[in-house]
Amino acid sequence: MKKHIVLLPGDGIGQEVIHSAQGALTALAEEYNHTFTFETHDIGGTAVDLHETPLPPSTLEACKNADAVLLGAVGGPKWDNYPSHLRPEKGLLAIRKELGLFANLRPVKGFKKLLHASPLKEEVVKDSDLLIVRELTGGLYFGTPSERRDNGDAVVDTLAYTRHEIERIVDNAFKYAQIRRKHLTSVDKANVLESSKLWREVVEEKKAEYPDVTVVHQLVDSAAMKLITNPASFDVIVTENMFGDILSDEASVLTGSLGMLPSASLREDGFGLYEPVHGSAPDIAGQGIANPLAMILSASLMLKYSFHMEKEAAVLEEAVHSVLEDGYHTGDLHIIDGHKVGTEELTNKIIEFIKCKNATNSIQSCYS
Ligand SMILES: NC(=O)c1ccc[n+]([C@@H]2O[C@H](COP(=O)([O-])OP(=O)(O)OC[C@H]3O[C@@H](n4cnc5c(N)ncnc54)[C@H](O)[C@@H]3O)[C@@H](O)[C@H]2O)c1
Ligand SMILES: CC(C)[C@H](C(=O)O)[C@@H](O)C(=O)O
Ligand SMILES: [Mg+2]
Q1: Superkingdom, according to UniProt (predicted)?
Q2: Nearest Cα residue to atom 5 of ligand 2
């Protein structure tokens, strides 16, 4: 199969981890007879520096013409005090909105080897396997006005949702629940927020269409607590934009590191942008020590959701599993008696696995 992929490295470790994903995908293409072509474009702070905008029109145009997009991360202290239209994060929000990527899937599944890497107790973490379905193009991030008033002493952010926006994400979440363990937790703040009341109303209406799925409504504050005390009680979580942002970083603790969580941002027709959940990690950027696995797992989601390459997607996941089983990890993960390596070395181990796996078609013989 021939596929054209736009790479948006962005800022900080985004630049480092996207390189890893490209390496892994190139190896996969060679082994499984695909042609992946890559085109790199600027976004975020890098784009502000070069084009005076966090989302240059040429970047958006290239994404519209691609089969899929991989994004590293945006942001960093250099741009923190820039005016809001020049903030790197605005480029990320704009591309999500422009491409209509309303459904953000954030699967949270631990790897066996990382059971002890989480600061949480093993018995709490061990059966956790959940999917956060985060609404991505509405809510607080997109409501107007969001500006200073009264000579800068007052400010407004608006949390706005339409019934249509809620219906389409809730509908998506029910469908994912149907193909998983058929349990949906809708997270809101319906004891306070009007938007959450409409959200809850829509979930209640929709559930009649999915009688095989059990539904629980949970307030976001107690959901945050339950996520790290009883994560196994969740299957699919559906929630609005900002709650999903916060809960997903929290959920990464179950996997041992924020550097392990991938995401897919999808449109109705299956077009997608794939990015790790983490940010540009300014504290470690440029040191060659970033964990590339969230980015590589995001590439695996791209293969699965946008290209329908189930086998190749599974190989990438197996590669991650195998290198961890062999003890290789970056410094953000704590593996007892493991081999701490840098981004490049870990990526090379992934690539070795991809090549070996195809030659032997057996995981055991690639890594013990
Ligand atoms: N999707 C995105 O582009 C995205 C997401 C989140 C944050 N950001 C931006 O990133 C910048 C930094 O934000 P932050 O520090 O709050 O969050 P962050 O996710 O960048 O980092 C949080 C912590 O996790 C660590 N970490 C994150 N990813 C890692 C990886 N792959 N390997 C090893 N360690 C990793 C970092 O070193 C840091 O200690 C901000 O400008 C923020 O706006 C961007
Ligand atoms: C950088 C920021 C705008 C972004 C978000 O909140 O959506 C990030 O935190 C994420 O999780 O993708
Ligand atoms: Mg976030």
Answers
A1: Bacteria
A2: 245
Query: Percent of the chain scored above 90 by pLDDT?
Result: 90
Whether the domain at 1-102+267-368 and the domain at 118-255 fall into the same CATH topology: yes
User: Which ligand has the minimum distance to the alpha carbon of residue 331?
Assistant: 1
List pLDDT tens digits, range 92-145.
Answer: 999 999 999 999 999 999 898 998 999 999 999 998 999 999 999 999 999 876
ipTM of the complex: 0.99
| Structural contact between residues 237 and 130, judged by C-beta atoms closer than 8 angstroms | yes
Feature table: binding site for substrate: 96, 106, 134, 221
DSSP 287: T
* CATH of 118-255 given 3.40.718.10, 3.30.360.10, 3.90.180.10, 3.90.550.10: 3.40.718.10
Q: Which two tokens mark 166?
A: 């809620």
- With cut-offs at 50, 70 and 90, classify the pLDDT of residue 297: very high
Domain boundaries, the chain: 1-102+267-368, 118-255
Model confidence over 62-77: pLDDT tens digits?
A: 999 999 999 999 999 9
14 alpha carbon to ligand 1 midpoint, in Å? 9
358: confidence class by pLDDT, cuts 50, 70, 90:
confident
Structure token pair of residue 142: 């997109």
Cα 281 to middle of ligand 1, angstroms = 4
248 CA from centroid of ligand 3 (Å): 7
DSSP H or E run through 322: helix 310-325
Identify whether the C-beta of residue 319 lies closer than 8 Å to the C-beta of residue 311.
no
Name the average pLDDT for the chain. Answer: 95
Give residue ranges with CB within 6 A of ligand 2. 75, 89, 92-93, 245, 277, 279
Give the residue numbers marked as catalytic: 141, 189, 221, 245, 249
Distance of CA 191 to the CA centre of its chain: 29
Do strands 129-135 and 103-109 pair parallel, antiparallel, or not at all (unpaired)? antiparallel
* Protein fold of 1-102+267-368: Isopropylmalate Dehydrogenase (3.40.718)
